[in-house]
């Protein structure tokens, strides 16, 4: 289902994350039919920004809007690291009560469920945005800032952002299509990871170049060189 979309993502030139995001949201919108699809990036201070958007012409644009870190709390971010897809078909639907065995010592947790009912405050948040249904998919990349304890171990992952789909009426996406979107997100995450690594390498080269220039200036100012003393 996502073969052509995957090929288009992989064929894009490197060095342009904005173009990558633009193509992704357009492909996801074409696949799923949601009214609005956004690429939502987390910054270093954990606040979020809508960096790309594909929407119906009758909808208010969200592109460029910034949201505080508290909009998506740490508990939700942790769940997005574990569960890559979260779908709400109808935020106004009456939740179905879970009946569990009385002998269970702990309440049944639905944290791993893709289709669990939304919390009341989140349902109200969606309604305030004019959204009845949503599909949210996480974008995870390698966390280079974490000591992994050896190259043999699996690298830690961090949440780069989310792809958020909104619809103004109830909408259900069947599993095969959700799975196709999830595969597309994996391809997108690989591309983003490459771009992040390239940007980090460029920053490192710039720092080394600056250090070289500074050292050269110091050596020219002091022909005898720089003296260091250790105890």
Automatic annotation (TrEMBL):
Keywords: Chromophore, Photoreceptor protein, Receptor, Sensory transduction. Coiled coil: none annotated. PROSITE patterns: PHYTOCHROME_1, PHYTOCHROME_2. GO terms for biological process: detection of visible light; regulation of DNA-templated transcription. The keyword Hydrolase does not apply. It comes from the Eukaryota. Pfam families: GAF. Residues 16-186 form the Phytochrome chromophore attachment site domain. This is Phytochrome C. It comes from Spirodela polyrhiza (Giant duckweed). The gene is PhyC.
């Amino acid at each position: 289902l996502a073969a052509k979309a995957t090929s288009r993502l992989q064929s894009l030139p490197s060095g342009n994350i904005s173009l990558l995001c633009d193509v992704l949201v357009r492909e996801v919108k074409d696949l799923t039919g949601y009214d609005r699809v956004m690429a939502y990036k987390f910054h270093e201070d954990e606040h979020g920004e809508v960096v790309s958007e594909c929407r119906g012409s009758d909808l208010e644009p969200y592109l460029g809007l910034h949201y505080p870190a508290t909009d998506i709390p740490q508990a939700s971010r942790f769940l997005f690291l574990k569960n890559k897809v979260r779908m709400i078909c109808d935020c106004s639907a009456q939740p179905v009560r879970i009946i569990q065995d009385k002998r269970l010592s702990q309440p049944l947790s639905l944290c791993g469920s893709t289709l669990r009912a939304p919390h009341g405050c989140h349902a109200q948040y969606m309604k305030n945005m004019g959204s009845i249904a949503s599909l949210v998919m996480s974008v995870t990349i390698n966390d280079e800032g974490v000591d992994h304890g050896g190259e043999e171990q699996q690298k830690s992952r961090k949440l780069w952002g989310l792809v958020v789909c909104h619809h103004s009426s109830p909408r259900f996406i069947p599993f095969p299509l959700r799975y196709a979107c999830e595969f597309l997100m994996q391809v997108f995450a690989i591309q983003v990871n490459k771009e992040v690594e390239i940007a980090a390498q460029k920053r490192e080269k710039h720092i080394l170049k600056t250090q070289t220039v500074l050292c050269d200036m110091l050596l020219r100012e002091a022909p005898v060189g720089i003296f260091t003393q250790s105890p």
